[in-house]
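note to self — DONT lose this again. spent like an hour looking for the file last time. sequence + predicted structure for the chain T wanted, 342 res
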Amino acid sequence: MVLIVYLTYLKRAGSEGFMARWVWAAVVAIIIVAVFAIVAMTGQRQSVSNGTMGSRVQTPTSASQPQRVEVLLIPNGTTLVRAISRSPAEMMAAYYIGNGSVMITPYPWNMKSWRGEVETVYNGSALIAKINASYSEKYNPYAPVLGYPSARYGCDPLFGACTATEPPLKLPLPATNADAVIEIDYSIQPGNCDVTDFSYDIWFTKGPGLGPGDLELMLWMYYTTPLSQSAPSPYWSSAGSYTASAYVNGNRVDMPIKAFLHIDRSSWSVLILAFERPIKSGSVALSIGDLVRIAERALNGTGINIDRLNLVSIDVGIEFDGPPNKLLSCSYEIYRWALASS
């Protein structure tokens, strides 16, 4: 078509004046541009029908996997931090480390009369807790625990203090949405202490403070005292046996767990999940969601519904005990503590 128009232009241009030739040239140019535009649009429609509209169309790919989010709680900063108790007046000594997402405390809460030191120290690369103390009297003589030197993340309902929190575990969070993985690498030096437990202390509440229907869920990863002594009947009742999927020293294992429950209708209740095979040192990673699902089964029929509670705090540390009037010496180290998306 372009050729025909151009030949017509040459024929008429030869018989007309200068101005006419310019007018015909403009007409021919407009027609040529229009023709090329039509051709381009046709090609574009064809490319769209084939799923390749130039460079703006991405080639379909397989669904991408969500990026793993991880928060390192320990190590956390390089500044030396030391929280120490030498008397009952210093029971609640506590300091924040790094970016403020972890609080450390010696917390010898059940030693009424004692001498010595209980301390938690962050040395810039690891958390170290040391007990070198002797006591003569407990506040609660029936509790097989003297204290819980520990690290804490979130709003601890006993301390009434909060740390900074961030994804993948921004707290408080409904228990049903708490599916982050908690990872820890540690070692225990029992010394001459009775290690009631080296454990996570995970708190689920309806709101600020503690009250009936709230839950303290403890995961005992290591202990030296037999469970029958640490969780005696009738104060504690057996709540069944379960299996949790975990990674121990990088290897996936099905961890057998025994559950013990104490229901308190006037205050919060406590659920213990204890590894049947205690781990004295190494790395352990498991999902909080798995623990919540075990708790759902263990609490069935008790009137406590963890699905209606919020996860507010996660603590980790050692509960220790021993005979009175004897110097007790034991310690632990946490080399790494992290939260990761599942």
